Amino acid sequence: MDRAVLGWAVAGGIAYALLPWYALEDGIFGFGWLSGYPTDRIGAPALVQALLHGRLALLPVAVFLLAPLAVRGFRGAGASPALLLTVGAGGTAWIAVQGFAVGGQPGIGVGGLVVFAALLMLFCVGMAAKGAFNGDRFLSGGIGAVVALVVVFVFFPVSRVLVGAVEDSSGAFAPSEFWAKLSAREVWGLDCLGSSAGCGVAWNTLILGVLVGASTTALGLAFALIVTRTGFRAKKALRLLTVLPIITPPFVIGLAVILLFGRAGAFTTFMERAFGVVPSRWIYGLPGVWLAQVLAFTPIAFLVLIGVVEGISPSMEEAAQTLRADRWRTFTTVSLPLMRPGLANAFLLGFIESLADFGNPLVLGGNYHVLSISIFFAVVGAQHDRGRAAVLSIVLLVFTLGAFYAQRRWLGRRSYATVTGKGDAGLHPPLPASMQRLVYATALPWAVFTAVIYVMILFGGFVETWGRDHSFSLRHYVAAFAVDVTDFGLRWKGAAWNSLWTTIEIAAISAPLTAAIGLLTAYLLVRQRFRGKEAFEFGTMLSFAIPGTVIGISYILAFNTPPIELTGTGIILVICFVFRNMPVSVRAGIAAMSQIDRSLDEASLTLGARSPTTIRRVILPLLRPAIVAALVFSFVRAMTAISAVIFLVSANYDMATSYIVGRVENGDYGLAIAYCSVLIGFMVLVVLLIQFVVGRRRLGRRAPTRVSLEGIPA
Amino acid sequence: MRRKSSFLKAMLLATCALTTLVLVPASARGEGTLTLYCSPQIEWCQLVIAEFTRATGIKVAMTRKSSGETFAQIKAEASNPKGDVWWGGTGDPHLQAAEEGLTLEYRSPRLGELQAWATNQAKASNYRTVGVYAGALGFGYNTELVAKKKLPEPKCWKDLTRPDLKGEVQVADPNSSGTSYTLLATMVQLLGEAEAFEYLKKLHRNVNQYTKSGSSPIKAAAQGETTVGIVFMHDAVTMAVRGAPIKVVAPCEGTGYEVGSMSIIKGARNLESAKRFYDWALTAAAQSLGATAEAYQVPSNKGAATPPQAPKLGEIKLIDYDFAKYGTSAERKRLLEKWGKEVKSLPQ
Amino acid sequence: MSLETHSASVEFRRVTKAYGPVVAVREVSFTVAAGTLVTLLGPSGCGKTTTLRLIAGLEMTTSGQILIGGSDVTRVPATDRDVSMVFQSYALFPHMTVLENVCYGLSVGGEPRDRAVAAAREGLALLGLVGFDDRLPSELSGGQQQRVAVARALVLEPRVLLFDEPLSNLDAKLRRRVRQEIRDLQQKLRLSVVYVTHDQEEALAVSDQIIVMDNAVIAQQGTPTELYLEPASRFVADFIGDANLVKGTLKRTDERLAALRLGGVEFALPHRGATDGEVNVAIRPEAVRLRPADGTDAPLVGTILKAAYLGSHMEYTVGSVIGELFVVDSGGVAAPFTVGARVSIAFTSHGVTVVD
Fold this sequence. Notes:
Distance between the termini of chain A: 42 Å
Helix content of chain C: 10-25%
CATH topology of the largest domain in chain C: Rossmann fold
Largest sheet of chain A: 2 strands, antiparallel
Number of helices of chain A: 32
Helix content of chain A: 55-70%
Structural class of chain A: mainly alpha
Structural class of chain C: alpha+beta
Number of helices of chain C: 8
Oligomer: heterotrimer
Largest interface: A-B, 86 and 84 residues
Distance between the termini of chain C: 48 Å
CATH class of the largest domain in chain C: Alpha Beta
Number of domains of chain C: 2
Largest sheet of chain C: 6 strands, mixed
């Protein structure tokens, strides 16, 4: 106990006395600050800032840091839990308050960050010493860190933008505007019931979300069942195909759908020539958006469900069969209910993804308006009505909250633990024949459809003008990815290299952070009881539920000025990705972890392992499918996200998607598609790499699944 | 106690990973740098900054975003501006930024070289913005589709309300697009408010989709997804030059136009560089760059060469567009609300 | 045997554990002496498993103190308590082999690999598991898995070893054998063991002391004999073994003893604090003696209502004025009573207790 206190207090003290308190123009590793160190105003530590530069508000921080050390020195005994709580809470609060209250300060830097972290950890050690979290300091620290991060990077920026809902255009408090905007007919109108006019955006969004959630869950389940429970031959190809859409940058699927089903599309033209069907614009609107979103989000449902379907204890299914249930009954009464957490999570993700999706409704929406688009154009459109954007965001949030709550109600308190400490050596029963036919009939046409879409996309990069002039051309690839060999080595001449490198760097940094924070959060949520857990869980979902545009704006509003000044850096992109994509890691982690019996962790604890060791040696190996899902998803999303990114990219940190959207806006589809094809290829490699490095869990079931799944990309 | 350190290590590692990212500063600062927010297509932006750097030695950090996005960003950043100059993009958000005091008053010595419409833009905004190019509103139609359906060629605004074009016209939603707001304001100025709304109601019956982005309709027309797209004519020219079966039309009744503008952001960190860019961007040489980047707008400097493909403003019947009136937030809001109530809500 | 023992005592001082409004353990105090096997016995939901988890540190007390080996561990997390636990589900790590499972505690404790393996092999050998090192838990039988779980807990030489219903997944014969093995091992190594079960026979067979819990509190603590012969309450009497609960009339004769009338029978027994008048009496089935009634002066007679032959003994249900009595008769197997026969009823002095 005492060493943890000593360690954190000393770390905080060193940072206070030695590390530059404020953020530096060219970063801590720019080393420019060393020239005037430690007296120069720019790179000075807090101690010097307070004594030489009159930043007296920093002095009390020292008191908070020294208190536990002083008590130790005087009394020779450790600091009491109460003192640690006081010091931790007081110190962190003081840093935050003085950061906002005292003007003229630069943004907080490495020194401030370490001191803040140290004080936070002292608080957590105090909590553990009080007996919270079973006295486990790691858990206490983990929860403290995640809560602090969520508060700073989710609650704070989101509240900044939502406050706009009750302000009028000049920024004054005007609650009446809120009601006017909330009750507007374009939000809740039901005109579509009686006439040809459209319904309100809220209804449109809800209908689309439910349709997409249900369709993606059903398709995801069908694919998961084919891969795990049937003798289907081309499983590898199927798995790859189901994963393709997730690694596809936005707009591309929408564009491909138009080129196939649009009024001048290939399929439409074929139907016209062959059967005389008059070309129409049916694809623009709900059918098109639904089609594109189901294409895009089925893989998410698949990734969530594959782990769950694999993880169901075969002995439970065997038990049902011995209880005279035939295969069909076994499937419907045992297997399917056991998949409930997975199904609920898959639906929730599909629903939320659909709500937040921006690219597909933009390209294919026609006159079918949804909230995400309305929010985007409320912000950037001709009216620049941020208040309306905030109000619509609140509507969107309420939907997400509702879905979240409904999922909770549906799952109830039943236990879904199927990986128990008892060795379990059964065989998954094959699907009942009728079910197998149904699954094939659902999944295989869809797979063919996906394949056609991707052939078209690949093809589009190699033709002169997509949709018009289909003569072979490499000009798009040359424009984007040309490389000159000069005397000084390679010169990256193509227009896309710059944004590509940045994108890879940001994605590579954010993916492991996302997976780590997400899985840690899942562990805390599934395994620990603490007050405010529900609120905490919702908080982690919040940033996912809010459309990227709002997140982008909120990040600018919150992090453009001190005390946390991040705009224009790469960090803000990383943070944005981490907290936007974390919910998927959390959901995957929760689904997988609720299948692992709690007694496994407890056994590890009583065997003398600490929580970190338990997580590393017991939980993580059993969570491999979830880790793969989390890593793949967060990497891929970092490479393909768009709406939040539009506001956060800067001259030095331009992202691939923002570049691609620029090309699409300009009507330059060829280059956009060539770039997308390269991104897709790259991501396939990365997914394979992640699969290879993380590997599969071994549960020792004598199962054909074990053989058939090896080396297949997740 | 011993294993406690692994958590510490993890925290430190994460911190390090994050801090390595701060390698590059938020914005270029000091002598000889400039942060530019650029709203036209990226080729033009890149060409402009390359030429500017060659001419002055000032390094430019450029971000390209549409004018709506740029306005939203400048507004969000107002308390601590990161950009210096906002170049290009339709004039309305520039005027709005001027109205909200987000941009800086500056009278370039080159104002005298500019066309009247460009200096009017400056006067309307108290010299917080200035016109750099202009583009007339018009429409383009897909010649293949028109031929296939044996339709008479549309030449005027009123042709677009013909019953045989039902479901064949695409235009942006004025709530989201400056292009379409220009159409709304143009009609009000051309026909008078009551007549204009009658026209728009008739047009509404023929519109198959109100797109979000101003230039989408012409891309849809180029692909054959719609027959007619109402857009700025230079956007239609770009499509035609690329080989799409698009015929560009300057409506016979006359039409309005946009003034692509440029503003210096209030609180610019590199004010000197910003002013140098501002002056340079108004020169004839700088304004002649557009055509090489497939930008067929009309430059504002009287001495700049107009691209041969560009719609000739002199040959188009231009209305005397009142930017001062129709650029204000109040008038815009009033017209948009009226349009939403009287036109958009009608069944099609 | 090189496994050393560091057995320590466990003491609860007025420990309460509440989950919100639900109290799982209320003001419980007891002591487990070092080197003894104490069983926590009770019906499900009585708080015995929570008590065990409180010892392990998997739950934190709401109030009260827990001492292990004399030092206060109330706020010490599970990892630092030096207490090992064998779980009902065994909680074997499914992704590790038998050897890896048993080595786990040693290696996370910093033991060098070769010494951990040696100790693990020794532990496995002690439990008769040789040659299973590289198997996964899923490839073992239930009894083998159970022994791996015990070996994994044992090789850490914990101060206290906890068992949470370790035999509930085994068949009856195996259960009897394994419980004896656990008892032998505990006595051989002088381990401090706390053992949770709901099976009274198991508790009686292995324990030095039994703590009977009911409704979050301790109903009675004592040796198996004490609990069986002198149950403190109807609950304990009924829960441990079979008991006939009847009414009798008590009259104190001195400080300790009293005269008890059951029907026409009167005999002396400890009054255990009961006041004069009608009392509850628990009678063990084997404390009832039946004789053929010769029709005359027996103080208490009854009629055989049911009779069952169980090889080693007879079981009867006898109707009488004090109620129906369940009787186990191991003496008269050769010449059993038939249903409807009239019998005279007498009681042995052990096995009849006044309960509250």
